[in-house]
Amino acid sequence: MSKKQRRTIGSIFKLPVDDYFVHGQILDDTEIVVFDTKGRKIEDPGEIVLQPILFRVSANSDAILDGHWLKIGKAKISKELSKPIPRYIQDALSPDKYEIYERGVTRKATRDECLGLECVAVWAVNHVTDRVRDHYNGVPNVWLQQCTLQC
Asked: What Pfam families does the database record attribute to this sequence (predicted)?
């Protein structure tokens, strides 16, 4: 049974995927960042946060709270990761209507403004794991594809 943990901003965690793991960091609100650490024997939190970023998403905290993503330390959140990132919302009933969401505030937007942004979503634990796996397997991620702008 996994150890219960708290969601502590700045904590570094191990995210297991099949027979390997990568590292992540808990950011503000519901966000996490996942680092490209597959195959690297890095345990120092200060070194982990210097690794390339795979992606940054809002994620369900279940894996942290139940200890599935085991916290291994804490590091200062970089200036880059402290900045909020905008995400888009596309109206499901009127797909030609868009908004940009950033730190609890939404504003109307054009489709062009939304290009290159990820959609507003809170990723489930298994979807985060799938996204990591798919990245390393070089295949499209079904969950990410569902979050792409509709024509």
From this structure: Imm26 (PF15428)
pTM value? 0.91
Quote the tokens at residue 67.
């200890």
Nearest partner of 81 among 5, 6, 12, 7, judged by Cα: 12
Structure-block tokens of residue 98:
């868009």
Token couple for 122: 């809170």
- Which tokens sit at 148? 């792409």
Q: How many CB atoms lie within 10 A of CB 64?
A: 23
Q: Which residues contact 133 (CB under 8 A, 6 or more apart)?
A: 17, 18
- Taking CB atoms within 8 Å and a gap of at least 24, the contacts of 84-88 are 85/56, 85/117, 86/117, 87/117, 87/118, 87/119, 87/120, 87/121, 88/113, 88/114, 88/117, 88/118, 88/119, 88/120, 88/149
Rounded Cα distance, 120 and 123, in Å: 10
Radius of gyration of the chain from Cα atoms? 16
pLDDT single digits (tens) 119-134: 999 999 999 999 999 9
3-state secondary structure of 17: strand
Distance CA 13, CA 144 (A): 22
